[in-house]
What does this fold into?
Amino acid sequence: MAPIIVIGAGLAGLVAARTLQKAGKKVLVLEAKSNPGGRVQTRNINGFRIDHGFQVLFSAYPAVQRNLNLVDLELVPLPLSAVIVTALGRELIGDPVRDARSLLGTIRARSLSMADKARIAILVARLKTVPPWKLLIGQDESTESFLRRLGFSNRSLETFFRPFFGGILLDRTLSSSARLFRYYFRMLIDGPTVVPKGGIGVITQKLSEGLDILTKSPVRKYETDSKKIKVFTDNSVFEAESLIVATDPKEIKRLTGLRFTTEAVGATYLYYGSRINLDTQSRLILNADRGIINNALWSSNVNPELTPNGFHLLTVTTLGTKRSTDAKIDCEVRDELAAWYGDNSVDKLDLINVEHIPFAQFKQPPNFVNLLPGNNTHDPRVLIASERTSMSSLQGAMESGERAAAHLLGDTSGMSRVRGS
It folds into this structure.
């Protein structure tokens, strides 16, 4: 029997392949790069485990719970709170139920007025009244419009919502879909935000186990006739009964002719090592002032296994793609960090890596769902699997992989599963 071929060993492709294999299908995965994982990667640089961008796992994602054994990942939870840095100093805001040490700081915090804190409590209660997937349907508007309509103050938007959800949606303007904001907020409520001890790449390592994956096998083209599909790499020709194209949008367009209308959103990440622990804080640090830094995390305070003995790791997120040289970006980041920690302390930081990710997410404005393609192509034997058929997240990539596999299996329940469920 000819196998089903999956082109691309990113998150969507791996989930599609595993779903098919569990159903008894013979599956071959062709990956252009030297290792599987796509954008969910962890690299070792001079003994530091560096994730591809700043990535965390929302453990409440339904697709995550279906496809991963969370115990096997050895997960470390992040505190459900954040430190807000302003020109006046630092404030601590969090969920005192799950982070008791944030209670006093949350009460005292000026970034959120007492009315804003009450509005958050009301919003949480409202979001919990319906299944999470229902938060992705209905009328849509921008996140900023939604928050202002609920009465949140301008100060709360500037000091908390913009930097916090700017880090999640890579959109500090809060112009992204309010549906998506509500869904992510619900995921934060329903389960801890976590990171694997071995880095985010452990997720795709686990999904790769037991699959037949050929790396360094870029696909040049495929051809179809009434009986079979031929897939051509540089060195081989493979025959398949069906095909799933689970690559980036440019490759999907090149191979299938399908065009995505959504735009890419980029970000730049800087990773610093230090022998001296400049900050004992394990919470996310949000920059409420205007500047290049959106948020930062002392990753080694959360997960010491990311660094060599005696070292500490700081991960800094800036929004947008490369606008200048790495040296200039580093200089700008250091200037802002100096305001936090002092010039002498910042001099002790060694730049380990700068990661420019032109496509970290795709733009998700209000009603973006109306522009989403399905998994189908012109040929019923050829499917696509990509977060761009759903939402830009681990949930979106996984559920797209599941749905593509369901089409090939004739699994009506899998094909009809709604977004976010």
